[in-house]
Design the sequence.
């Protein structure tokens, strides 16, 4: 069987930890690199329900997009919910690995998966990675000059469609959540060039880059009142309809499509490692994507 070190090496090659933001906490959280890996579970959030799923399935490794320990801690006593999660994982022999902002900027990465879910033909990142950034030159599908890596993606629809139909496309493409899909813009405006950014994407520089590129719509999560209001006003100030329509989706839902991509990548790489490509046969690793909805919002009450 491959070891945890083997699996970490594959994931680090695709989602180099050196690509993560300085404030982020990615990589192996707990686990013995020499331990054998037979089952790997992918999920967005390392919440208690996901930990329980990993234990019930008998996973040897849990890979999550969001970090369990994003902020520095001085201990992991089981007196806190995060400490309890660490104790449960270690006690049951389950390793935990996080691929967060390093997976956001990888190619293919989180936003590539979101773009494909919407049937977009990707043409490039919203905020390209620096050509000489950390990790360039390392092996793996996400390495290289940085020309393909970066935050967010621009993509083109197969055919133009009105915003109201595009909003339905988004709603049908992503797993349902209680908050649903919110839209800011003229329902009849034509949408062809689309920008997407999995996770929180109302950074002022991102919004400006999307507007300057002439995107018709921008799909992301966690859009706040003031950035949205100002983006719409700036677009109208430049010219009627100059700014993009804004489509706000669940943070969890926007990142969930990436899990299948990461799982497929790991399965293919392990197939080569374990000899399933014609070499000497070794053990087979089961890979699963969690179907649990870990979006924290659980109820939507429509107002008449």
Sequence:
């Amino acid at each position: 069987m491959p070891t945890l070190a083997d699996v970490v090496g594959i994931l680090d090659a695709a989602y180099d930890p050196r690509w993560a933001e300085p404030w982020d906490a990615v990589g192996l959280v707990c686990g013995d690199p020499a331990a054998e890996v037979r089952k790997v579970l992918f999920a967005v959030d390392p919440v208690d329900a996901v930990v329980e799923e990993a234990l019930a399935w008998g996973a040897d490794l849990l890979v999550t997009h969001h970090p369990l320990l994003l902020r520095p801690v001085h201990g992991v006593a089981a007196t806190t919910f995060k400490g309890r999660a660490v104790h449960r994982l270690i006690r049951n022999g389950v390793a935990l690995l996080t691929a967060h902002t390093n997976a956001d900027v990888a190619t293919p990465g989180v936003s590539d998966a979101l773009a494909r879910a919407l049937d977009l033909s990707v043409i490039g990142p919203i905020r390209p990675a620096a050509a000489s950034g950390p990790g360039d030159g390392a092996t793996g599908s996400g390495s290289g000059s940085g020309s393909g890596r970066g935050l967010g993606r621009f993509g083109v629809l197969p055919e133009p469609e009105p915003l109201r139909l595009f909003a339905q496309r988004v709603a049908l493409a992503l797993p349902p959540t209680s908050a649903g899909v919110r839209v800011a813009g003229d329902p009849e405006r034509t949408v062809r060039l689309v920008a997407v950014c999995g996770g929180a994407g109302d950074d002022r520089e991102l919004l400006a880059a999307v507007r300057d590129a002439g995107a018709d719509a921008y799909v992301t999560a966690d859009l706040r009142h003031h950035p949205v209001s100002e983006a719409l006003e700036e677009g109208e100030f430049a010219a009627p309809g100059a700014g993009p329509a804004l489509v706000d989706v669940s943070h969890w839902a926007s990142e969930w499509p990436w899990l299948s991509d990461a799982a497929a990548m790991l399965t293919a790489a392990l197939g080569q490692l374990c000899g399933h490509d014609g070499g000497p046969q070794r053990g087979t690793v089961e890979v699963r994507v969690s179907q649990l909805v870990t979006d924290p919002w659980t109820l939507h009450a429509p107002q008449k």
